[in-house]
Design a protein that fits this description.
The structure holds 3 protein chains of 3 kinds. Chain B is an alpha+beta fold. Helix content of chain B is 54%, strand content 21%. Chain B has helices at residues 2-14, 16-55, 85-91, 124-130, 132-136, 154-160, 205-211, 231-242, 251-254, 256-294, 296-304, 309-345, 366-392, 396-401, and strands at 59-63, 79-80, 95-110, 113-122, 138-141, 149-153, 167-173, 179-190, 200-204, 217-218, 220-225, 246-250, 347-349, 358-360. The longest helix of chain B is centred in the N-terminal third of the chain and has 40 residues, at 16-55. The two termini of chain B are 32 Å apart. The chains are: A alpha+beta, B alpha+beta, C mainly beta. The interface between A and B is large, with 71 and 59 residues.
């Protein structure tokens, strides 16, 4: 049997080489089909991820740490559940495996005014280095000609949202006054220099009246030196968020609560899940389409060579041999085409991952760049299905062809 | 020309199997694209309607200057709604209903617990007509009917230890800044699908007007339209009808993030559709090339009887275009049928642990289907360009001898 | 050397004791138990004003009750502060509502009334600067968390019964948050002689000010504790 197969294989390869054009066409069809499926799946995953990353990288962080009870009390008394921001705590958090960066924050309500008018604002006091490490998207929050994000070089410099700045008629470089009450109600006020004006509210996450200031500034204003209300964390792998959360919670003990972004913003998790379901469905449909295409191509391949089959039968070839020939030809095309296609697809996905596919609508407040996720498993599945599909597709018509009456076969066009 | 087209169609009919296969490939691809578009339409429609028929309304009317105010939820400048303003808005062509509201920050007190909320006073009858989704969001109890009733969100209710059927007092500064309070019966509990709605409390407009001492007035008017696709034209008409002093904004100006999300989805779909089309095109090109190779003798015959190269080229183009049109037509038909069935039944997406299951109603629009047919015809024609060119380049003598084709 | 210093000290006017000044201020501006008729005129940034008339009762250090008489929209409302709890009695609710956070009145008409909360002796370190010929400056530096301001400068007349003239209220950053001026010293009876009008200005939200005037202050030996109980509100 093996001898038989190797013999036929040799003939099959020769046949494929002889009919270069047809082989090339069929191969091309398989390659492109498989490559597109691998890319499309990666694109779908990339879209889902980017929806999440937009918010995780822009504000939330993959995990958040608060003092126990903070999330319940935050509306009424945002400062009540604060915690000491000491080296021991930071070491514990940074030392947890999977944690890539830590951003301490202080969030509170305050009154921002220019002397004549004042308005209530939500203040985010952040550590410039940590914040950009955890939320790299914030680098782009302030457009180039509208100033810069908060930085240590300007300890009294803050960033205002576009609508807020417009409402107060505040320009870059202006000095405003920020007034807030500390934990015990003691009022304090500090000058605030307008260091940057950000685009409008990026999402339903932000209020239109948010102001970002350096952490030290916030601590000084509230007379809460060395304290914070929140730690936002970035992880090496967002996919392992649950694992890291459990590890971190154990390290920190019962005085703290560690929340994933999904717990802080369940609405986002639901919306993302829905989009993901739809995109996965799309990928499956595309998959079937490709398989159908491969099958179709194989079928046509066989039907086109009916006369050839007739000739072979007429000169004495066994039906078994003809069947094997066609099936093996299909197998070679399927395997080679599938392999090349899967690799090409992965390469394309990887390249677009680096480069990014911009989907930002004009005038949008934030950028949306899709980075398709290269998935070797999907590539493998695509390859296997393509190869199998090619073989199975060729079987039917090959069987029919090999069972043909040579005279009929020779006569058909 | 016409005879060529006729010949093209006859050729296709003759090579039944090949034609059927190519048609099937195109049809399947188009069906898939139509299906996906239908789904996406359903998803977007749900999202948009959530805004347009829910909290935001299709458009809103404010007093000029209101939206520029420094306060988060100001009470001035406001609108006179006791007079004919609502009537004038509803008289505009395309407007379905107008619902006045007063939105203001307030304290909600149940027992001796107090919480900060955003209160919205609504006219029960008009709000139902204008924003029916609000009514759908009532989880327990019922929507507002009377004058001293309120609807509170689950989180706030639980946090204050209250329940449907109990009482809740609203406490806030009136338009002059003097404290005032009003008691209400909590007749229902509302779901809060978005973050911003968690602290929302609905109460009757009359109670709100009494609370902030603005009798006969409102801070905004939500407007519903007959056809959401025409909302911008209707907004222009409302602006013209009301004149200066009023600020009219459509839902996409008020909820820009939703609009951006929809745009991004559309663009993403564009990429996916391109992927589908590439796959289909490759398959069609393949098939057409094979077809040319197989019909070498036929082409030779044609040329021998005087057909010019250009005519051969056109012949193949027509064949391909016809395949494209018919294949797409079949695909559109099948796709629309599928979408129609799902659209009537509705597709419910439950995500594990989600707050609310979402039901989508897929649909496709005729001009999308027509565009698909056109794209398919053009695409198939482009796919056939190379094969057709090759066919036209055959030398009659060689062609007749069967040389130049595949074995 | 020492004898020379002592001689000089004896020769100069006796410097007022800081502690005594603080006690004097506390006693005069916030007697232990009293009932009073007050009027407050609040001015907003846009120039509009609103006038409130109240009857207030105070007992001990932290029991305060105020009944609103004017404006008409506020008539019948009562405010009760008992320690850290703040309750509002609303006549049309016929019950009292506990007000949650301290900063719930941020930006409101009663924002400036912070300056009236006295108990400086408990919350501030006191020292005196008598370089200004206008009066003695009582310099107060906060020493507890519950002190509303980081520092206060209080000018008092230099005589047998010092009266407050003006005050400046500072934030921890050094910014001046409020200013107060004291006018119209009046004899209220029962030995109480003190300014009857205080003008408070907000130095951050310029344009916001309030003027408080006392029409009558009746000192009491004590006021029954049940006056400062929620159930008593509205009677």
């Amino acid at each position: 049997m093996r001898r038989f197969l190797t013999d036929v294989m040799r003939i099959a390869v020769r046949s494929l080489r002889r009919n270069r054009r047809r082989s090339a066409l069929t191969l091309a069809a398989v390659i492109i089909g498989v490559a597109v499926v691998v890319f499309a799946y990666g694109f779908g995953e990339g879209l889902t991820t980017s929806l999440v990353r937009t918010l995780v990288d822009a504000r939330l962080g993959a995990l958040q740490v608060h003092a126990v009870g903070y999330l319940d009390a935050v509306e009424a008394q945002p400062l009540k559940k604060d915690f000491a921001l000491d080296d021991a705590l930071l070491a514990k958090v940074k030392g947890t495996p999977g944690v890539a960066a830590v951003a301490p924050r202080l969030r509170f309500g305050a009154l921002l005014g220019d002397g004549a008018t004042s308005t209530i604002v939500m203040v985010d006091a952040v550590d410039p280095h940590g914040e950009l490490a955890v939320c790299p998207a914030r680098k782009h929050e302030v457009p180039a000609d509208h100033g810069a994000f908060v930085d240590d070089v300007q300890p009294r410099g803050g960033v205002l949202g576009a609508e807020l700045a417009a409402g107060l008629k505040a320009k870059l470089g202006a000095t405003l006054t920020l007034q807030a009450a500390g934990k015990e109600g003691q009022l304090n006020a500090l000058d605030l220099e307008v260091r940057g004006i950000s685009r409008g509210a990026a999402s339903f996450l932000e209020s239109k009246r948010s102001t970002t200031v350096p952490l030290a500034y916030g601590q000084e204003l509230l007379q809460m030196q060395g304290r914070a209300t929140e730690l936002a964390l970035a992880l090496d792998d967002v996919g392992r968020v649950e694992e890291v959360r459990a590890a971190l919670q154990e390290r920190l003990g019962p005085g703290f609560e560690v929340s994933t972004w999904a717990e802080v913003m369940p609405f986002l998790r639901d919306a993302t899940a829905r989009v993901q379901i739809i995109l996965r469905g799309v990928s499956v449909v595309l998959f079937f389409l490709v398989v159908f295409g491969v099958v179709n191509t194989m079928l046509m391949n066989v039907y086109e060579r009916v006369r050839e089959i007739g000739t072979l039968l007429a000169i004495g070839w066994r039906r078994r041999t003809i069947l094997a020939l066609f099936v093996l030809e299909a197998a070679v095309l399927g395997v080679v085409g599938g392999a090349i296609g899967a690799s090409l697809g992965l390469l394309l996905t990887r390249w677009t991952y680096q480069v990014g596919i911009p989907l930002t609508p004009p005038g949008a407040a934030f950028e949306q760049i899709i980075r398709p996720v290269p998935d070797a498993r999907i590539a493998l599945v695509a390859f296997v299905v393509a190869a199998l599909g090619a073989v199975i597709a060729a079987l039917g018509p090959a069987k029919r062809a090999s069972n043909m009456n040579p005279v009929e076969a020779l006569r058909s066009t | 020309m016409l005879s060529l087209l006729g010949l093209a169609v006859r050729n296709l009919a003759r090579h039944r199997r090949r034609t059927a296969m190519i048609l099937a490939a195109i049809a399947l691809g188009v069906t898939a694209v139509v299906g996906v578009r239908g789904f996406l339409n359903g998803l977007q429609s749900t999202l948009i309607r959530g805004f347009a028929e829910g909290t935001v309304g299709a458009m809103q009317v404010h007093a000029q200057g209101f939206l520029q105010s420094n306060e988060a939820a100001p009470l001035v400048p406001n609108l006179e709604v006791a007079g004919d303003l609502l009537g004038r808005i509803e008289a505009v062509e395309g407007v379905k209903a107008a619902a006045p509201r007063i939105t203001f920050p307030s304290m909600l007190s149940i027992g001796d617990q107090t919480a900060f909320v955003l209160a919205v006073g609504v006219d029960p009858v008009r709000e139902r007509a204008c924003c029916p989704r609000r009514v759908d969001l009532v989880e327990q109890g019922r929507f507002l009917t009377g004058t001293s009733e309120s609807l509170v969100g689950l989180e706030v209710l639980r946090g204050l230890g209250g329940a449907v059927g109990g009482k809740a007092a609203l406490l806030t500064g009136d338009v002059d800044g003097v404290m005032n309070a009003v008691d209400t019966d909590v007749v229902g509990q509302v779901a809060a699908p978005t973050q911003g709605e968690k602290k929302l409390v609905l109460l009757s407009l009359a109670a709100a007007q009494e609370l902030v001492r603005l009798p006969g007035r409102a801070t905004e008017i939500a407007v519903a339209v007959d056809d959401l696709d025409r909302v911008h034209q209707v907004a222009d008409r409302v602006r013209a009808a009301l004149g200066p002093g009023y600020d009219v904004r459509t839902w996409d100006e008020l909820a820009t993030t939703a609009k951006d999300a929809v745009e991004i989805q559309n663009r993403a779909l564009g990429v996916i559709t391109a992927a589908f089309l590439v796959v289909i095109l490759v398959g069609v090109t393949n098939a057409l090339l094979t077809s040319v190779l197989e019909r070498v003798r036929e082409i030779g015959t044609l040329m021998a009887v005087g057909a010019r190269r250009r005519q051969v080229l056109l012949l193949f183009l027509f064949e391909a275009a016809s395949l494209g049109v018919v294949g797409a037509a079949i695909g559109c038909g099948a796709g629309s049928a599928l979408v129609a069935v799902l659209g009537i039944k509705g597709v419910t997406l439950t995500t594990p642990g989600a707050s609310l299951p979402q039901t989508l109603y897929p649909f496709v629009e005729l001009d999308f289907l027509l565009r698909m047919v056109a794209m398919s015809a053009v695409g198939a024609s482009i796919a056939s360009l190379w094969p057709a060119w090759k066919a036209s380049r055959l030398r009659p003598v060689e062609a007749l001898a069967g040389v130049g084709g595949g074995g | 050397m020492l004898s020379l210093a002592l001689a000089l000290a004896v020769a100069a006017e006796p410097a007022p004791d800081a502690l005594a000044l603080v006690r004097r201020y506390d006693a005069v501006m916030s007697p232990a138990n009293f009932e009073a008729q007050t009027k407050m005129v609040a001015t907003r940034e846009d120039g509009t004003t609103r006038t409130y008339k109240m009857k207030t009762q105070k007992s001990g250090k932290d029991k305060l009750r105020a009944q609103f008489l004017e404006p008409a929209s506020a008539k019948g409302q009562e405010m009760l502060r008992n320690g850290e709890n703040l309750w509002l009695w609303m006549p049309n609710l016929k019950r009292a509502v506990r007000v949650a956070a301290r900063d719930s009145f941020m930006g409101g008409d009663f924002n400036n009334a912070d300056v009236l909360r006295v108990n400086y002796q408990a919350d501030y370190h006191a020292s005196v600067d008598n370089s200004d010929p206008a009066g003695d400056i009582l310099v107060l530096k906060s020493k507890t968390q519950s002190a509303s301001y980081d520092a206060i400068k209080l000018w008092m007349t230099r005589d047998q019964s010092p009266q407050p003239i003006k005050a400046e209220f500072y934030a921890a950053s050094g910014k001046i948050l409020r200013r107060a001026e004291f006018f119209d010293v009046k004899d209220f009876g029962g030995g109480l002689v003190r300014p009857s009008r205080i003008k408070m200005t907000n130095e951050i939200s310029v344009g916001r000010s309030s003027e408080m005037s006392w029409e009558a202050i009746n000192l009491k030996d004590e006021i029954p504790a049940q006056r400062f109980v929620i159930d008593d509100l509205g009677r």
